[in-house]
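REQUEST FORM: STRUCTURE PREDICTION
Request ID: SP-0412
Submitted by: Lab K.M.
Chain count: 1
Length (residues): 116
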Amino acid sequence: MDEQELAQPMSETMEKGGWVGEHKARRKDGSSFDGQFMTSVILDDRGNPVAVLASILDITERKRSEELIKKNAEELKDLIEIAAHELRHRQLCSGVTPRFSWLTGRTWTGRRFKTR
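STATUS: Completed
RESULT:
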């Protein structure tokens, strides 16, 4: 995070006592990663701020998993649309699209689906 990007989180940290957000971060070797930043204000006995505690969690794998889930959901939606179209037009008996077979692992035998 550069100074401009840091201004809003620091302001919120001081006003609300903490902040959580996601930004790109940079490792010592210069490579970047997706990071979840968390800050908290440390107060003394009188309630005055004396320090700010900050931590960064590498969420690269979580982001990859979220993207994979999103992609799989889109493929499932496509599968459902294909199946609904096939059912609406009663074309299941005349054959199933290759994409439907590929996604489900099943083929149409003429009377029922058969698992490959």
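NOTES: The chain has two domains: 3-58, 64-115.
Reviewed by: T.R.
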